[in-house]
Design a protein that fits this description.
Layout: E1 2-8, H1 13-22, E2 29-35, E3 44-46, E4 49-51, E5 56-65, H2 70-81, E6 89-95, H3 109-112
Helix pairs in contact: 1-2
Length: 113
């Protein structure tokens, strides 16, 4: 089991969700976050409003997947998020030690779905 965390541009969220849904990955958590990478200080336009520098609006996706879905999920996120411009985002993959579905108390890969 793996946890995939992706940081993407807010305006690419729908494209990323559509790409994930197309490969039957439907269990995602979406958070609005602030941060910056190498583009610190670069002006960005978000919903028609120009924002300067320090901390920029981003979207964080957390997706728990079984091992066979890791690479398809990565490719779907890239497909939906990539513009070729600075600030497209990052994808992090790390081991998921345990998953427990609260309703049924199922554990492990069965609990992920």
């Amino acid at each position: 089991m793996k946890m995939i965390m992706a940081i993407i541009q807010p305006y690419r969220l729908e494209e990323v969700k559509d790409a994930l849904y197309s490969i039957d990955i439907n269990l995602i958590t979406v958070s609005e976050v602030l941060g910056h990478g190498r583009q610190k200080g670069v002006t960005e336009v978000y919903r028609g409003v120009r924002e300067n520098g320090n901390l920029l609006r981003k979207i964080r996706l957390d997706i728990a997947v079984n091992d066979e879905f890791v690479e398809p999920a990565i490719q779907a996120i890239i497909k939906g998020a990539k513009t070729g411009e600075l600030g497209d985002g990052k994808i992090f993959v790390y081991d998921l030690k345990e998953c427990v579905r609260i309703r049924t108390e199922e554990r492990g890969s069965i609990a992920i779905g």
